[in-house]
Amino acid sequence: MELVPRARERELQLAVEAARIVPGDVVCDAPAGGGYLRGYLPGDIGRYLAVETAPDFIGHCPLGDGDRVIQSPLHAIDLEDHSIDVCINLAGSHHLENKGSFFREAARILKPGGRLVLADVESGTDVDRFLNGFVDAHNSMGHTGVFLSGATAGEIAACGFDIVRDTVLSFPWVFPDRGAVGVFCKLLFGLDRAEPVEVITGVEEILGLNDAPGAVNMEWSLRYITAVSQQTSEELP
């Protein structure tokens, strides 16, 4: 991410847009994964709370006044009941076999009417094929993501939420050239069994690469779900 910091810009922007953040909101980024979402939040939020499940990421989180990094598992976040306005889980839930434990924890820490944004890979998409196929084959540790399915929205609702938005969105990851695609993806996905040129081939065959003026777009997609705690849920515009 430090190599090409704006590669995933649209992915991060869409998560923030889905949250419908208003001035003064306390935003919990769980898991934060280095806190890259922080730079896309409005400047007038109340606080940013970065939940890191692994200590390696803690020192990477950018913090403003009043912000905080919390090292906690996603099923037991070190926050008080009903203490936040927004909880965003971006590309982190596919590591969870039991997603319900996180959904229940999000319901606990959100204020009445608070928003949960879940954004992750939809099962059966090209991104699923790339991660659980190509990445799994070329990362010596493997990759078996538990992606979102037809049951996900119901699981969220069963934990105390109303689903107000649920859609798969396609967007590009943007790079200066094809070489940057190969190096970025090799490092991001830990592809120790593939050279950058092999990575570029795999990306192009499975996901698609499109040349644009001064850039190369790598096709990507995620499913974005916005849910509101049931106590005072209102349809978002």
Keywords:
about 240 residues; alpha/beta; Rossmann fold; 8-stranded mixed sheet; 6 helices; 8 strands; about 25% helix; about 30% strand
Mean pLDDT, nearest integer? 94
CA-CA gap between termini: 32 Å
Rounded to an integer, what's the Rg over CA atoms?
A: 18 Å
The poorly predicted ranges are 232-237
The biggest beta sheet reads: 8 strands, mixed
Strand proportion: 25-35%
The amount of helix comes to: 25-40%
Q: Write down the secondary-structure element order.
A: HEEEEHEHHEHHEE
**Name of the CATH first level:** Alpha Beta
CATH-derived architecture: 3-Layer(aba) Sandwich
Q: Quick one: CATH superfamily?
A: Vaccinia Virus protein VP39
Q: Strand pairing plus helix content: what structural class?
A: alpha/beta
The overall strand count is 8
| Shape verdict | globular
Domains counted in the coordinates: how many? 1
* Count of runs of 4 or more consecutive helical residues: 6
Within the CATH hierarchy, at the fold level, what is the topology?
Rossmann fold
How would you concisely characterize the structure shown here?
The protein is of the alpha/beta class and 237 residues long.
Write structural notes for this entry.
Helix content is 27%, strand content 28%. The chain contains six helices and eight strands, in the order αββββαβααβααββ. The chain has helices at 9-19, 99-109, 126-138, 152-157, 178-188, 196-206, and strands at residues 26-29, 47-52, 68-71, 84-90, 110-120, 161-175, 209-212, 215-229. With 237 residues, the chain is α/β, with parallel strands linked by helices.
